What does this fold into?
Amino acid sequence: MTRGTRLLSIFLVAALSLGFLFRASAPAARDVAAELRRERGRLLEMKERAKKTASELTEALRKEKLSKGRVGELRARLKRQRSLLSRIDRKVSALNERLDRTEKAVRELEEARGQARTGLLSAEVVAFTGQRVDAGNPWDPSARERERYFMRLRLAADAEGVARITRARERKEEELSGIERQVAVTERKRTQEKKVGETLLSRQMEERSRLAGIEREKKRKQKELKSLRAKIARMEAVVSRVERQVKERERRARKGAQDDAARKAEEAPRRFASLSGGLSAPLPGKVVSRFGRQHDPTFDVTIENRGVEIEAPSGASVKSVGNGEVAFAGAVSGFGNVLIVQHGGGLFSVYGRMETFLVKQGETVRKGTVVGRLPESPSGKSVLYLELRAGGTAVDPASAMSLDR
Amino acid sequence: MSERPSLWWIDWRLSRGALVRETIGRFLFFCLLGAAFLSLLLSGGTSRFLADRFAVTAVLRADVPAAEAEGLARKAAELPPVRSAAYRDPETAWKEFLLAYPGLEPLRAAGGNPLPGYIEVRFRHDRLTGADVNLVVSAMRSVSRVDQVLAGEEWLPRLLHAGRYASWFCRGIFGAFVAGFFLFCRLQERGRAVALAGDFAFLAERGVPAGRLAASRAAGAAVSGFLSAAAGAAAGGGALFLLLREFPSLERVIGPPSDLLLPRTVAAAAVFSCFAALLSAVSSLLGGRAALSGRK
It folds into this structure.
């Protein structure tokens, strides 16, 4: 809770306390104060909501910017991915064309090799199984010798042709294997890149969906903020008007009651001191907010403290400052759980910002009776609001009991 | 002093019919012998046949131009043992090869010609010897354009041996025929001498010496034999001439018909006739003597 809010709350609880304790003495002022409290409470809530909404809007804008950045980055990555995929597709296409050409060449070479082998075998058959017509003529040995030599030449040429085609085919098959390996590698790469692309697309869609949600939220918050600001403006006008009325009445009342109040203020500590058993501090701790008019440097305003704030360890027990009866135990806006003990003779002690009550309304308590506990805080420190009232006038608790300043 | 009777052609005057028959028979035989003699003479036994069958093949390198190959063939033809040297270009070699191996023709329709050109060197039939073949082979192998020389190193010696044996066989057959002819003539002479023995005895009683009678008869037989042999050789040669012209393929075994008209052939025919005259005279003498001694 900010300091300004706290001041306002204090003001409100004070007004509430006034209204609660002195409802029979000033009904008109009570109505105005109640209305003022109500309006201020609503104004405070609205401002809180406006602030929260503004904060949420800022967060939404930050998220939107972040999300847009992500979407842009994803779009760029997706574009690069698509370009890469396109290049891979072109490469695969070119490899497939090469593959087709090489396969065709291999087939042609295979066919040529088959023909050449068939030719070679047939030539061998012709040469060695007697298909010769005139080559067996024993009367022409020189011609036979020449024909045999030429047949050897021819068979050697055919064998060389077969070997050449075989070598060419083997080379082509090696090339084919290489291309197939390249195609497989490229296909794997394409599959991987496609998966990456799909992931990116999915992420982009998610991000767009999130962005759309954020934009909807932003619009809603903007609308809500706008509405709240309008309400706040109206409410501030109402509060200003009520405050002027309160101030006017206070000015009138102050003039008549100034003397009485001054007298009561002088008497109040004596009255508390005359209580049987006296008063004691509700809990050991340091006073962090003093009684009376105090200047707030943060907001640069002067506020009127009607009590003190005592800093104590979290969860510390709160004891009654004197003998009395529990007049009130319940929640008050801006003060949390509030316990009011009536000590008689118009003396009251008020304990605010408590976590739990250990006594009930109407229950008699004695000095030092544990009436409740402070809330637990991550910092290990909690604050108790303590206010003393004598005859409707706030009394500085430090003047009635010993407090560590 | 008594007049000495003429003994010239005594057999003709005493036994004309028998002599005519024998002469005709001998003429026919001389025709055959003459033809055989001239065939042997021209063919050299089997030399001409072998020379026609045998050739040295100089396979050229693939890059030898045709003009250069032709020039190389002309140079080879100038070698002394060489009868002819002909260049065959690769195309011709391929065609010859396909003729020898007709089954290959459809197999290599799309392929190129793997065969090179070559020079075929043929030898004169009278120079077909191992030494002359080696001479030509060495000469061809020394040429850088020649890739391979095929000269039948494995089978040529056997072929030449076989040719020599075949030639001697042919000549032996001819000699046997001549010997048989001689024996046949001797029997004829003896038979005629026996048939004319009375006449010869009458002449002996009139003072004609037996030796003069035998010499006269031998001279007549020689003249008759020469003329018959010459006529028979001429007739046989003519028949051979016509045969060679009619069947040119025989030229590769015997020789060209024009060789029959060469002077050396005519001279050989004359020698053949003289030899026949000699044989006729000897057979007359031997037949007469066999008749006088009562032997067969």
In short: The CA atoms of residues 211 and 285 of chain B lie 10 Å apart.
